[in-house]
Amino acid sequence: MPGEELVGWGRTAPTAAYLVAAPDLTTQRDAVQLAGERGVLARGLGRGYGDCAQNAGGTVIDGPASSGLLDLDLAGATIRVRAGTSLDDLMRWLVPLGLFVPVTPGTRSVTVGGAIAADIHGKNHHVKGSWGNHVTSFRLIDGRGEVHDVSPEGDPELFWATTGGMGLTGVISDATVRMQPIGSSRLLVDTDRTGDLDEVMALMVDGDDDYDYSVAWIDLLARGRHTGRSILDRGRFATRDEALAGGAEDPLHYAPHQLLSPPDVFPPALLNPLTLRAFNELWYRKAPSKRRDHLMSIEAFFHPLDMIADWNRIYGRRGFLQWQFVVPDAATEVVRATVERLSASGVSSFLAVLKRFGPGNDGHLSFPTSGWTLALDMPVMEGLDRLLDELDDLVVAAGGRVYLAKDSRVRPELLPAMYPRLDEWREVRARVDPDGRFRSDMGRRLGLV
Ligand SMILES: Cc1cc2nc3c(=O)[nH]c(=O)nc-3n(C[C@H](O)[C@H](O)[C@H](O)COP(=O)(O)OP(=O)(O)OC[C@H]3O[C@@H](n4cnc5c(N)ncnc54)[C@H](O)[C@@H]3O)c2cc1C
Question: What dotted CATH number matches 64-182?
Answer without folding.
Answer: 3.30.465.10
